[in-house]
């Protein structure tokens, strides 16, 4: 018997689809399909997970014949449901708590911060341009463009490494167990609503700053304050929304599966990200001259 025959048999005894088995192992459905088509072979850690999942030895799984084994010799396959205590028989028993073993929460927090900071810096750079040069309509076009480029370079410096890290994290951990309790999710939704309200208030305050500084001999300071408030407002809203998306683990799992299935397209997009990073570095070199 081959590994493929054993895998198909064991999966059939649990009435698991390829997608369900893929989620248990943290791989894509295409990977399971390739294993069963003998186009590829799982890594050793995946083989160990299969042994733990189906209650068999590694030698039997790879070289043995599990298709002829009686059901009673594989209690974890079909008898687990019968032997497991029912919920009503153990009302005081607590369900096992799922932990964040891959650092998902910290990763998503950093991603939300970097994205929000990039948006805020880019918008605020417009106000800095008005303050330093008076805007591109004031006749200092090269200086105005330089300020814009600095803002773009800083935004790229924040977003490009973040994007690469996120794609790498998705590829390494395509499936995350939902470890957030309902209370944490409700708290995240409440904070998102509060963040949106704070963002709106900051935007309204920013729109009033040009009139506040109307008595000054120049509008440059008012313009800088306006775009500073707008950038801060946008950053607060983006951060609040992404922190709420952080607890939607199903959304992450769906996106991660798409990244794995994209294959070559993801590699091409990564190449474009690398090109953007090189352009950013070129801009910084030119600005230092």
UniProtKB/TrEMBL annotation:
Ranges annotated as spanning the membrane: 112-132, 138-158, 193-213, 219-242
Protein name: XRE family transcriptional regulator
Lineage of source species: Bacteria, Bacillati, Actinomycetota, Coriobacteriia, Eggerthellales
Domain (HTH cro/C1-type): residue spans on this chain: 7-61
Superkingdom of source: Bacteria
SMART domains: HTH_XRE
GO molecular function annotation: DNA binding
Keyword Membrane part of the UniProt annotation: yes
The keyword Transmembrane helix is annotated on this UniProt entry: yes
UniProt keyword list: DNA-binding, Membrane, Transmembrane, Transmembrane helix
């Amino acid at each position: 018997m081959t590994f493929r025959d054993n895998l198909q048999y064991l999966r059939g005894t649990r009435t698991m689809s390829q997608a369900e088995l893929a989620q248990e192992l943290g791989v894509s459905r295409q990977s399971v399909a390739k294993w069963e088509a003998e186009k590829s072979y799982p890594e050793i850690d995946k083989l160990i997970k299969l042994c733990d999942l189906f209650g068999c030895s590694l030698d039997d799984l790879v070289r043995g014949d599990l298709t002829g084994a009686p059901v009673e010799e594989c209690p974890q396959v079909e008898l687990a449901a019968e032997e497991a205590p029912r919920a009503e028989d153990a009302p005081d028993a607590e369900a096992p708590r799922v932990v964040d073993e891959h650092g998902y929460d910290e990763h998503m927090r950093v991603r939300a911060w970097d994205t929000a900071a990039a948006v805020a810096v880019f918008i605020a750079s417009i106000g800095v341009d008005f303050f330093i040069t008076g805007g591109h309509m004031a006749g200092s076009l090269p200086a105005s463009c330089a300020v814009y480029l600095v803002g773009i370079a800083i935004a790229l410096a924040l977003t490009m490494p973040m994007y690469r890290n996120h794609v790498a994290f998705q590829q390494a951990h395509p499936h995350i167990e939902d470890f957030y309790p309902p209370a944490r999710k409700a708290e995240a939704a409440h904070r998102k609503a509060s963040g949106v309200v704070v963002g709106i208030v900051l935007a309204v305050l920013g729109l009033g700053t040009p009139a506040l500084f109307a008595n000054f001999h120049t509008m440059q300071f008012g313009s800088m304050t306006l775009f500073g408030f707008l950038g801060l407002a946008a950053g607060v809203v983006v951060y609040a929304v992404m922190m709420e998306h952080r607890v939607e683990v199903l959304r992450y799992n769906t996106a991660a599966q798409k990244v794995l299935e994209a294959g070559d397209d993801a590699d091409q997009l990564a190449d474009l990200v690398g090109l953007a990073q090189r352009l950013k570095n070129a801009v910084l070199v030119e600005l230092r001259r």
